[in-house]
Design a protein that fits this description.
By secondary structure, the chain is mainly α. It has one domain. The chain is about 90% helix and about 0% strand.
Amino acid sequence: MPNLDIVTFSYQIFKDFGCNVVLGGIIVWLLWKIATNHLKHIGDDVKTCITKIDNVSKDVSENKKSTDTKIDTINERVDSIGERISVVEGKTGIK
């Protein structure tokens, strides 16, 4: 049995089966390359979106903490104003 190299083997396949097998193989290979490249880009987009969503949730939690602090400060001020008003009412006799 003689040694076959890749060129001889390819020529033999092309001679026996014609263009259909060669073109079919090229089409399958191209579709495979396109599909895997497309899936890689989709995966990258999903990772980017997840990172952005995580950043938004961190921003929301930080803003909530800041808002809670502001509300607590405002509540303390309102309470102190209420105490001052009741002191003034007590001194004037207004109820």
